[in-house]
Specification:
2 copies of one chain form a homodimer. Chain A is an alpha/beta fold. Chain A folds into 3 domains: about 45 residues, lambda repressor-like DNA-binding domains (434 Repressor (Amino-terminal Domain)), CATH 1.10.260; about 130 residues, Rossmann fold, CATH 3.40.50; about 140 residues, Rossmann fold (3-Layer(aba) Sandwich), CATH 3.40.50.2300. Helix content of chain A is about 45%, strand content about 15%. In chain A, helix 1 crosses helix 2. Chains A and B meet through helix 4, helix 5, strand 2, helix 6 and helix 11 of A and helix 4, helix 5, strand 2, helix 6 and helix 11 of B. Strand 2 of chain A pairs antiparallel with strand 2 of chain B. Chain A binds a DNA duplex (30 and 30 nucleotides) through helix 1, helix 2 and helix 4.
Chain lengths: ~325, ~325
DNA sequence: GTTATTTTTGAAACCCGTTTCAACCATTTA
DNA sequence: TAAATGGTTGAAACGGGTTTCAAAAATAAC
């Protein structure tokens, strides 16, 4: 059933080389023969075996994408952008859900290596991966994270530090006096930098930094929110480490009868789609997800084409005020 | 750098065939030679080229997954389950985001065909795809949809009809008198069946079916909700075609000052993760996403292993009452 | 000790598209 | 008209595991 290039050649009365040249336009072919070949391809529905081509070319036109969890809205949005950008450049996406399991990550990197993937876009934390990434000849792009000790690898990150600062400054503009930070995992640069931004603003205003630890995750957010209320009963501003945690915090606040933003104001981070769909809509820090994902693919394309590219890519962030915070001026107007 | 099986063979003083046999355990090998081979593999870090293997075996250990949009929580959850099940069986996932673009779907099916994917799990509507799927020798599984005229293809679906009935009956139990259905696209079997369930319950109770059309999508949900309020000002129960639309409806209701569930009760469909995270938590119909995704992979594995499998797979649904509906009995208790 | 049987082993063919290289044909130029 | 230049073309090699098949080695049977 599946027909080969040799069979096409036989039927068209030419050599396989000529068929290859017709398909790829890699050399001139006598117009009469070209037509014969195209006719045979058309009537047999011949489709070249991509594995054979990839084997010879040492390129499978596949980009590996390793995310912690595709179910997570932030990574879902990134995956969507990456797939789209790749598709437009005739690349396909091999998706791996690592669940932050280093063993699974390594296994997936090995698989991609053996499949001669043309690049790997990875969103992970594991410093343990440094070695693995180091002796892989595939180009890597590390997205939304930064791993120390890998000077040769391209990074793409939002300016988490600035985001942390902006979020904190915004809560102060909103008149909050007791602002507590639910900081993200300190093993991730995003968690570190956001928290650092918060701390620096505290310092500049002579405030004492107040924080709790939390994973980037809804369930953890519930626990953290309860601990927060117990520990800081007079809190009036909460800086959540991301939108999912902010959603969890809201749920707890609401069940305890706190009003947002009247009693407690709340900031998220990431601007995932749901932060806008929620009622109330969440004030948050915007990461340019679309641009970041597209750049990740672009870097791999440039690597393949041996063009140069920037290794360190820091994307600017911005703040969107929605319904969980209210500037002092606006609050006064309403009074 | 990248070493081949022939080089391993040379260094171990055996033939490539023997190395292959050691790696795959396809035949007995003299223990001394086996050790020599394993030692060389270990010290060189040799990893067999998966493309060469796949070329010969005509199997790439890749399963294609075509979803309308990975950003959509429902498909994100399905993709996650599918990836996990595939991974546990040494398969990898090639993800395609079709955006319901038939051209893109066809192109992706062709790519998967040329890559000798071992199976394709597709969530799509296009009847136009029937022909394409028909003359593909790869096993297909159609998930969450049903396409008429493809008797040979495996389908996996939740019992949308029952779900539609249950949702409607629940709203009636909750004392709603004016129940309007925001029905999903009638080109999908899910849209048809859910609506049919609603209609049948109406008929059985001598009620007039009242409905509006809407896509499975938040933005469309906003429009539909506004139209609904204009058209049916005395509505007191809304049956949304899925959770995303229910979220949109809630947003409109809330902005217009309606209370849920006191003034209007609201049912979703799918039980996506966010339906529980929202405030209020949404009453909805549960599709067994996990089981459905796992079965899709299992069917492909069975096909590959030439075992038999069920072609028509209808999964049972159930109802979860949360905070957007309230049974009459409960309402009375509270009075 | 010899023959029969089983196990191990490697050479070569295979999967299939691509590319190189030399042969071939058709123009141009001298 | 002969030599030189340029464009077409196909045979063969290539990429790298896998498998077949027959030879070689080892064991069993007589």
């Amino acid at each position: 059933m599946m027909i080969s290039i040799r069979e096409v050649a036989r039927r068209a009365g030419v050599s396989p080389s000529t068929v290859s040249r017709v398909m790829n336009g890699t050399a001139n072919v006598d117009p009469i023969k070209r037509e014969r070949v195209l006719a045979v391809i058309h009537e047999t529905g011949f489709a070249p075996n991509e594995l054979a081509r990839a084997l010879f070319k040492k390129s499978s036109k596949i980009i590996g994408v390793i995310v912690p969890n595709i179910e997570n809205a932030f990574f879902g949005e990134l995956a969507r952008v990456i797939e789209e950008e790749a598709y437009q450049n005739q690349y396909r996406i091999l998706l791996c859900n690592s669940l932050n399991d280093t063993k699974k990550e390594i296994l997936n990197i090995q698989t991609l290596n053996r499949l001669h993937a043309d690049g790997i876009i990875i969103m992970t934390n594991s410093e343990n991966l440094a070695a693995q990434i180091g002796n892989c000849q595939i180009p890597f792009v590390i997205l939304d994270r930064k791993i120390e000790g890998l000077d040769e690898i391209a990074f793409i990150e939002a300016d988490h530090y600035k985001g942390g600062r902006m979020a904190m400054e915004h809560l102060m503009d909103c008149g909050c006096k007791q602002i507590v930070c639910i900081r993200g995992p300190q093993k991730y640069s995003s968690g570190q930098q956001r928290f650092l931004g918060y701390c620096d603003v505290c310092k500049e205003h002579g405030l004492q930094a107040q924080w709790l630890d939390c994973d980037y995750d809804y369930e953890e957010g519930l626990t953290a929110a309860e601990a927060l209320l117990a520990q800081y009963p007079d809190v009036d501003g909460i800086l959540a480490c991301n939108d999912m945690v902010a959603i969890a915090v809201y749920k707890i606040l609401q069940s305890r009868g706190y009003r947002v933003p009247e009693d407690i104001q709340l900031m998220g981070f990431d601007n995932i789609r749901f932060s806008r769909l929620f009622t109330p809509e969440f004030s948050t820090i915007v990461q340019p997800i679309k641009e970041m994902g597209a750049l990740a693919v672009q870097i791999i394309l440039k690597y393949v084409q041996e063009e140069s590219f920037e290794k360190e890519n820091l994307f600017d962030v911005s703040l969107i005020q929605r319904q969980t915070t209210r500037r002092k001026a606006e609050a006064n107007e309403k009074q």
